Amino acid sequence: MTPRPAPAANRRPDSPRSSRRRSGRILDAGHLAPWTRVKKNCDGWAGNFVCSQVHFVPGETQYFLAEAMPFLSESLRARTTAYLKDETAAYPPLRFTALPTDKGARREWYPLTAGFIDNNPADKNRINNIHKFPPVSTSRATANSRCRWCRITWPPIIAPSTRKGSPRLGCHQGHPGAALPTTGLGGEHASVAEQVRGRHGHGLRPRSGRLVWHRGPARCQQPLCGNDRAGAPASLAGDAETEASRAGCSPAGDRPLRVRQDDLASLRPGAIDLQRIPER
Amino acid sequence: MTWHLYDRGLLTFNEYQKDKVQDSRVPYAVDEYGMSIRLKITNYQPNGMTVLRDAVPELGAFARDFLKTETMAYIDNMTVQMPHWYLAWVEQGVEDESGCPLPQDQYQTFMAYAWVAEKPAAWLEQRVDLPWTDRGDLFYLHKLVETMRAWEREGTDSA
To answer: Of A78, A112, A146, A239, which alpha carbon lies 20 to 30 A from B89's?
Structure first.
């Protein structure tokens, strides 16, 4: 597998002017709320993954602004000094280990508009990720690792799901549980309602006033799920729910998730020659 | 010990390593069940790389003087798999569970190239990219500062 080449370099950011503009925006905003993994600053799923301590420890703001100080203009330097004094008085670094998340201006995500991307060809790489819920990466290595992870991890997950204790997980995985509520027609719980709808082509159907497991088609119709009924994990043998579980979708079987064979072949050890990686 | 199971697939990355310097596995935790061997670049919790996390320039200088080979092997392990590491919001396949690279990882990768590898200022400036937040992205501010320091080292007036 040849390493993907890096995209064309972006335009020059004009560092001095950019640093002054960025520093000025911090000063204009006054006290900034921390950028943490709690969803109180930058909205969206990706906000959960910003868990560096830099953006919610008060001393770090002073450190970064002090680093930029030599490159600021005289007027901006004076404003920065006053800003740092105010911040130190309001949130002494030796007293506050973390800034309160409900005080201060929002930082907000940097806007990436469609027009911006059109004018910057290198930014087309981000086009899948400008949404607030970016999709999971679909690289070959990720697909291969997830496939292996599923084969290893799903049997112990599914096995207890057919017994009392984790009926909700069992429903979510497409398997019935012994403790599943059977009264009504599935309106008590969202996962039960999902099974009633037969999302996988199989599921719980009302019969004689109670919910019973309904066999679906021989092969699961879900994308990337190539399992059939014969693929039930061995750990389910002897369980009271075995027959019902075999009717379900079981990624723990012998058949792995559908991954192209040439993708797997390209991931063999030694497929990448590290000596041939170009200078970056 | 679910991390063992979780890491089993991720360790496929290590099949590419050819010697112990390139091997990115390190002992991560020792508990009553044994030792967890984990990838340095894909620590699940806390997310992100650890090599120069929240580092200051002095630590970067120390890494440059005494740990340059190890530090850059760590960084190269990530950038080989993700050549577009410097683009904010870009799709990535190195970190598990996150569809986009982590700002702190891009920051410390940039700083490794600035402090340890001492890349030219023009090379750095092309990889400053964009801020993640509309205001208050301290990582982005520091990238700009280090780029200007590199210009100064090279004797070029960037203003």
So the answer is: A146
Q: Which residues of chain A have pLDDT under 50?
A: 1-12, 38-40, 43-48, 127-140, 142, 146, 153-202, 218-280
Contact map slice: B 94-133 vs A, CB within 8 A: 95-100, 102-104, 107, 125-133
- A123 contact residues in B (CB cutoff 8 A): 87
pLDDT in the model for residue B63: 92
Pairing of β B25-31 and β B34-39:
antiparallel
Query: What does each C-alpha distance from A82 to A59, A88, A95, A233 come to in angstroms?
Result: 15, 10, 20, 66
Q: Do both A240 and A144 map to the same domain?
A: yes
Contacts of A146 in chain B (CB under 8 A): 9
Structural domain contains residue A193: yes
**Are both A151 and A231 inside the same structural domain?**
yes
The two three-digit tokens of residue A147, written as one number: 């496939």
Nearest CA in chain B to A72: B145
pLDDT tens column, B30-47: 445 555 544 444 443 445
Residues A161 and A227 in one domain: yes
Q: Which domain holds residue A182?
A: 140-246
Which chain A residue is nearest to residue B73, measuring alpha carbons?
A274
Question: Which of B13, B95, B141 has its CB closest to that of A68?
Answer: B141
Asked if residue A216 is part of any domain, the answer here is yes
For residue range A189-235, list pLDDT tens digits in order.
Answer: 444 444 444 444 445 555 565 555 555 554 444 444 444 433 333 33
Q: Is B45 on the interface with A (CB under 8 A)?
A: no
- CB burial class (10 A; 0-12, 13-18, 19+) of residue B159? exposed
A50/B83 CB distance under 8 A? no
Residue A176 three-state SS: coil
- Say if residues A246 and A168 touch (Cβ distance below 8 Å): no
Domain annotation covers residue A151: yes
CB contact under 8 A, A54 and B54: yes
pLDDT at B143 over 90: yes
Q: ipTM, 2 decimals?
A: 0.76
* B14 in reach of chain A (CB within 8 A): no
| B36 part of contact set with chain A, CB < 8 Å | no
Give the gap in angstroms from C-alpha A41 to the nearest C-alpha of chain B. Answer: 10
Residues 6+ apart with CB under 8 A from B104: A50, A51, A52, A54, B48, B49, B53, B54, B139
Q: Which of A108, A136, A126 is closest to A44 using CA atoms?
A: A108
